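Quick review question:
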């Protein structure tokens, strides 16, 4: 009789352990389903090439769709409901001829035709290749990894706009400046533009942080650690786990 009770107790304990492990495994493996909707189906626009440029590659369109499908749900809904668009072009010249040799705003020696992308309000633009200065010729197209990272970072600007331009918020400004105060001298060269304390550079820095939070690569080797206060604020506002 005692043996049977012990066997029953062990059996119940085993079943309990199995249930716990099953629920843990189920929860651990849960993922949000891929996003879907007009932003993906209707608002990815491919710009026709000019000047003999190669057309936008199918792989680039697929990369854009993949990025959007995997965005955190709140972020995707923000962009979709905010009317955002994704515009893919060989280069800025293909949509705005004659603009490619103009200097990009900011401290870097870069033309508009050399940029990987740009955001106008909630309209995101990503360019496949750099333009050779003084020519309509394009260099080799960027890798899909680079395009993915560029798209994520530029999406950061559109997300900021959809959130009412968070970078003008007093609290975020204070947190961002506190992070800047603690950037090690050894890393200041990585943040040439961000260290200029104005709204445009703060928007640039925050878009880079958002870009990493939504799945883009960290091109600064420790961006989120270098801006811990800003990162925590943005994660909370965007409900990113």
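Suggested answer, residue by residue:
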């Amino acid at each position: 009789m005692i043996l049977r009770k012990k066997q029953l107790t062990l059996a119940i304990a085993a079943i309990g352990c199995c249930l716990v492990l099953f629920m843990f495994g189920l929860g651990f493996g849960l993922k949000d389903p891929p996003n879907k909707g007009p932003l993906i189906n209707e608002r990815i626009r491919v710009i026709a090439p000019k000047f003999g440029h190669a057309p936008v590659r199918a792989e680039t369109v697929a990369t854009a769709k993949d990025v959007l499908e995997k965005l955190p749900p709140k972020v995707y809904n923000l962009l979709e409901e905010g009317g955002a668009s994704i515009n893919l072009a060989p280069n800025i010249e293909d949509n705005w001829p004659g603009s490619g040799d103009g200097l990009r705003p900011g401290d870097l020696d870069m033309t508009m035709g050399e940029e990987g992308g740009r955001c106008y309000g909630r309209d995101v633009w990503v360019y496949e290749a750099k333009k050779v200065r003084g020519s309509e010729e394009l260099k080799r197209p960027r890798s899909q990894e680079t395009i993915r990272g560029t798209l994520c970072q530029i999406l950061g600007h559109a997300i900021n706009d959809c959130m009412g331009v968070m970078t003008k918020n007093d609290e975020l400004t204070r947190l961002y400046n506190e992070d800047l105060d603690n950037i090690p001298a050894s890393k200041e060269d990585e943040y040439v533009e961000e260290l200029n304390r104005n709204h445009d550079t703060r928007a640039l820095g925050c878009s880079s942080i958002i870009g990493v939070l939504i799945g883009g690569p960290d091109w600064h080797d420790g961006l989120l650690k270098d801006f811990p206060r800003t990162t925590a604020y943005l994660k909370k506002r965007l409900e990113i786990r």
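Why it works: The first helix runs from residue 2 to 29. DSSP finds nine helices and four strands in the chain.
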